[in-house]
Amino acid sequence: MELDPLFLSRLQFAFVVSFHAIFPVFTIGLASYIAVLEGFAFKTNHPTWTILSRFWTRVFAVVFGMGVVSGIVMAFQFGTNWSNFSYTSANFLGPILSYEVVTAFFLEAAFLGVLLFGRGKVPPGIFLLSAILVAVGTFISSFWILSANSWMQTPAGVEMRGELLYVTSWSEAIFNASLPYRFVHMALASFLTGGFVVAGVSAWYLLLGREVKANRAALSMTLWLLLFIAPMQAWVGDLHGLNTLEHQPAKVSAMEGNWETKSNVPLLLFAWPDQEAQTNHFVLGIPGMASWILTHDVNGVVPGLDQVAREDQPPVWLVFWSFRIMVGLGLLMIAAAIAGLILRRNGAVYTKRWYLRSLTFMSLTPFVAVLAGWFTTEIGRGPWLIYGIMRFEEGLTPSLQGWMALTTLIGYVVVYAMIFTGGLYYLMRILRDGMEHPPASEQEEAPEHRAKRPLSAVDVPFEEGAR
Amino acid sequence: MDSMFDLVPIWAGIIGFGIIMYVLMDGFDLGQGILFPFARNEEDRDTMMNSVAPVWDGNETWLVLGGAGLLAAFPLVYTVFLPALYLGVFVLLAGLIFRGVAFEFRFKARTSKYLWSWSFSVGSILATFAQGAVVGSYIQGFETENFRYVGGAFDWLTPFTVLTGLGMIAGYALLGSTWLILKTEGKLQAWAYRITPKLLAMVVAVFIAISIWTPLMDPMVKARWFDQFSLIWLLPVGALLSMVVLVRALIKRQEGLPFVATMGIFVFTYLGLAASKLPYIVPPSYTLWDAASAGESQLFLLIGLLFVIPFVLMYTAWTYWVFRGKVKAGMGYH
Description:
The structure holds two protein chains of two kinds.
Chain A: H1 5-44, H2 47-80, H3 83-117, H4 124-153, E1 158-161, E2 164-167, H5 170-174, H6 179-208, H7 212-247, H8 249-256, E3 262-263, E4 267-274, E5 279-286, H9 289-295, E6 301-302, H10 316-343, H11 348-351, H12 353-362, H13 365-380, E7 384-386, E8 390-391, H14 392-395, H15 402-433, H16 441-444
Antiparallel strand pairs in A: 1-2, 3-6, 4-5, 7-8
Helix pairs in contact in A: 1-2, 1-4, 1-6, 1-13, 1-15, 2-3, 2-7, 2-15, 3-4, 4-6, 6-7, 6-12, 6-13, 7-8, 7-10, 8-10, 8-13, 10-13
Chain B: H1 8-35, H2 42-52, H3 56-73, H4 75-84, H5 86-108, H6 113-140, E1 144-145, E2 148-149, H7 159-183, H8 186-217, H9 219-226, H10 234-251, H11 257-277, E3 280-282, E4 286-287, H12 288-291, H13 295-322
Antiparallel strand pairs in B: 1-2, 3-4
Helix pairs in contact in B: 1-3, 1-6, 1-7, 3-4, 5-6, 6-7, 7-8, 7-11, 8-9, 10-11
C-alpha cells in the first residue's frame, strides 16, 4: 500500500488539533464562569459562591494543565509536517502565533498563580481582579489563534514576493474579513461548553442529592445563561455563514450540498452527496429554505458547486455532515435551555429526574458540536491551505515520507490516548470527590511553600479511597 | 533588509538567550529524571522531584516560546530543523509530555507510583538525548536545496549525534547532581557529592571527543580555530576553568559553587559552539540573515516581547526566591 504523506499529515493535524481544542474551548468558558462566581462571592459574601468557585477552579486547573501539555505539539507541527506552508507564511503567522504564546505565558506567570493559590492570601478585590484577568487573558489568547486561522480562510494584508508572503498591512491581516464572526462564534461556543458542563455536573450532583443548595444555584444561573446564549449562537452562526458565502462560496455550497447554481434551493435535511456524480442521493429537503436562509428570499439564487472546478471542490459529504451534526446539536441545546425555562415553574427543573439525567448527557454535546464546526470550516476550506493562495499539497514538508508521517501519527495517538485516559480518569475522581471537602492544602500548608503549577492546585489523590 | 535598521543581531541575541536559559533551567530538572534510576531509595526520589517541582513547568515554557519565536524571527531554522529532525522531534515531544504528566500524577498516586517514576525517567532521558542530537545535527549541517531540507529521515542520527546526545545526558545529569548538592542535605546530598565527579568525567570525555571531531569534520570550523590564534580560545579556556572550579568546590564540600561552575561549563561550551558556527545558523549554506524573516515582522513581535520578557524574568526570579533553601524529605510541593 502506498502511504500518502499528505493524507497522513492532514489526519495527524486533525487529530492533534481536535484533541487539543477541546481543552481550551472548555477552559475559556469556565474561566469566565469562575470570574462571575467570584464576582457574586465578592458582592454578596455568600458561601455558596465560594464553594462553587473553589470546586470549579480545581477542575479548571486540571483541564488547563492538559491543554498546555497537548498544545506543546501544536507549536512544532507546523514545522515538522507543513514546512513549506510555514516558510511561505512565516512573516505573518510567526509573530501572530508567538503573540499567542506570549499572552499565555504572561497570563500564567501573572494571574493564574493568584487565582489558583492566592485565595485568602491576597485581598478579595485583587483575587477577583485576577479571576477576571485570567478570563480576559484566555480570550486574548484565543483571539490570536483565531486571527491566524481566519487569515488562512480569508487572507488579507499580505503580498507574495517570490515564494514568500510579506505583510503589507498588519491591521488588515489580523482583522481579516472572517475574524469577527469566527471570534464571536467561538466565544459563544466556549460559553455553551462551559455552561453545559456546569449544568450537567450540577444536575448529576442533584440526582445524587449532594450539595443541593450550591448545585441548584449553579444550575439555575447556567440555565439562564444558556437560554440567551444558545439561540444567540444560532443567530451568530447564521451571520458567520453569510460571511462565508461572500468570501468562500464553495464552502457554503458544500455545507448545503448544493451542486447547481439556481434559485429556490431546498434546505436538505438528509442526503448522500456523491462527489463522483456531482449530485445527491436519498434527498429529503424543505423547498426554498436554503435560498431563504442565505439570501432571505425563497427565490434567491444561490451559487452551487458547479461554479468551482472539480479539483477545487472540498470533499462534500464530510463538510455536509459535519455541518448537520453541529447544527443538530445546536438545536438540541436550544431545546434543552427552553425546557429548563418551562420546568422552572414550581422548581421542577431541580427535581425532574429525566431532565437532570438528560442534562448530564448534554454536557458532552458542545464538545462534539465544536469539533464538527471546526471540521466544517477546515475541510470546507479545501483544497486550500491558505484560501486562494496555497493548496494543501504545496504546503507539505517536501522531505516527508509516508512511513514517517504514519510513525508519528501512531505515536501521537498513543501518547495522547494515555494522557487523555489519565486526565479524564483524574477529572472523574475530582467530580466524585465533590464540593463537600474544603481543599486540605488551604488549611495545612504554609502559604508560600507550594508549587505554582496548575495541577498543584488540586489535591485529590489519583486512586480511590486514599483521602 | 528593507526596514530602517537591522534587527537580526538583536533577534539572534534574544533567541540565543532563550536557548541557554532553557538549557540551564530545564537541564537541571531533566537531570533529575536521568538520575532517577540510580537514586538510593524512594524517599530520595521524592525529594529529588520535590526539589524541581515548583519550577519545572516554567522552565519548559521557554521551549514553546523558542519554537514560536524561531518561526517568527528565523523561519528558515524552523522549517529546516524540524523536517530534518522529524523523528527526533517526536521523541523529544513525547518524552517531555510523558515526563510532564508523570510529574503531576506521581505526586497524587499511591499504588501506581512506580509507573509514573518510570515514565518520568524514560521521558527525561529520551528528551535529553533528542536535544543533544539537535545540537549534533546543527554542527553536522543539513542537506538543503533552495531553502528546503532535502536529506533523509535519519540524517540526524549518526555516530556524531549519538555522541552529542549522550554528552547532553551526561551534562544534564551533572546539572542535576550539582543542583541536588545545592538544594538537599544529609545522605541525598552525600550521594550527589559522590556521583558528581563521575558525571564530570563523562562530560569531560565527551567535551574532548567533540572538540577533536568537529574541526576534523568541518573545514570552516577548523580554519576558524586553527588558521590564526584568536580570542575565541578564551571560551574553551573558560569551560576548562569552570571544570577546575567545580572540582575544587567538590573537594571543599561547597554547596552553591558546584552548580554555578556547571552552569559556567555549559555557557562557555555554548558560546564556543556559537563561535565555531555563526553566522551560519542552517549550516553549511545559510546565515542568520538568510534565515531571518522580514524586518517588519521581526519588529512587530519585538515590541511585544520587550514588554513581556522583563516581566517573565522577574516572575521567574521571584519563584526561585520563594523556593530558595533546602528541600527536606517529606516536604511536599505537590
